[in-house]
Design brief:
alpha/beta, five-stranded mixed beta sheet
Length: 215
C-alpha cells in the first residue's frame, strides 16, 4: 500500500459565491444546536459567480470563474467544463510532478460525459476518480472530500469577513484567500482526510464520529 497515495490526488469541485453572503447548503454543511425553525432570508436571484477549485496536498489550484468574455457568469455544462480543463487546468499542471497523480471530481452530469472523461485521461491515464471514470467516488460522501469538509467553508468564512459590495470585489477576495493559503495547511487537511477515511472504514461506511471534525 502506498502510504503517500492521499497526497497524489487532486480533488475538485465548484461552488457558488453569492454577493449577499448566503451560502449554498450543498457546499457548506453546518452542524449546530440553534433553533432550526429560524428563517434566514436571501435573494431569490442573487448575483453569484460560480467558482472551480482544485485541492491537493501541495496547494490549491484556482480559482477559475465560469464566465463569458464579458465577465458574466455562465452555466456549468459539458462545453464550459471542458474549456476550464484545457485552458486553465492543463497549464496549472506544468509545475506538478504528475507521475502517479489522480484526479477526483463530483458526480455532476457535465463532469461525467464520455468526452470529458476521455479528455481527463489524457493527463491522468487510468487515474480518474469519477462516475464513468477509472474509480468511482463513494456517493453521498461529503464527509470525505476536502472540498466539502474544508475548502468552501474555509474560503467563504474569510471572503465574507470583508463584506465585498460588488462582484469584482467578491472575485478579488476569492483570489486573494485562495492565493494566500499556505501549502502546509493543505497538507494538514489531507492528513485529516486520511483519518476520516480510516474512521469510515471502521464504521463500515457509517457517519463519522464528531471527534474527526477537530483538528
Amino acid at each position: 500500500m502506498d502510504r503517500n497515495f492521499s497526497k497524489k490526488i487532486i480533488f475538485s469541485d465548484e461552488a457558488h459565491f453569492q454577493l449577499d453572503g448566503c451560502m449554498n447548503t450543498q457546499n457548506c454543511r453546518i452542524w449546530g444546536v440553534g433553533n432550526h425553525q429560524v428563517i434566514n432570508e436571501k435573494s431569490l436571484h442573487a448575483q453569484r459567480p460560480t467558482v472551480w477549485c482544485g485541492f491537493w496536498a501541495g496547494r490549491m489550484i484556482g480559482p477559475y470563474f465560469f464566465e463569458n468574455e464579458a465577465g458574466n457568469a455562465v452555466t456549468v455544462n459539458g462545453v464550459s467544463y471542458r474549456k476550464k480543463i484545457t485552458e486553465f487546468l492543463w497549464p496549472k499542471l506544468d509545475d506538478i510532478e504528475m507521475e502517479g497523480m489522480w484526479f477526483q471530481q463530483i458526480d455532476a452530469t457535465c463532469h461525467n460525459a464520455r468526452e470529458t472523461i476521455e479528455l481527463l485521461r489524457e493527463e491522468f491515464p487510468g487515474c480518474v476518480i469519477s462516475r464513468n471514470g477509472d474509480q468511482n467516488w463513494p456517493p453521498r460522501s461529503c464527509d470525505l472530500t476536502p472540498c466539502d469538509f474544508f475548502l468552501w467553508g474555509f474560503v467563504k468564512s474569510h471572503v465574507y469577513a470583508n463584506k465585498p459590495q460588488t462582484i469584482p470585489e467578491l472575485k478579488a477576495e476569492i483570489r486573494r484567500i485562495i492565493g494566500e493559503t499556505e501549502p502546509q495547511l493543505c497538507g494538514n487537511v489531507i492528513e485529516n482526510l486520511v483519518k476520516r477515511a480510516r474512521v469510515c472504514q471502521q464504521s463500515h461506511g457509517g457517519h463519522l464520529s464528531d471527534i474527526v471534525f477537530h483538528n
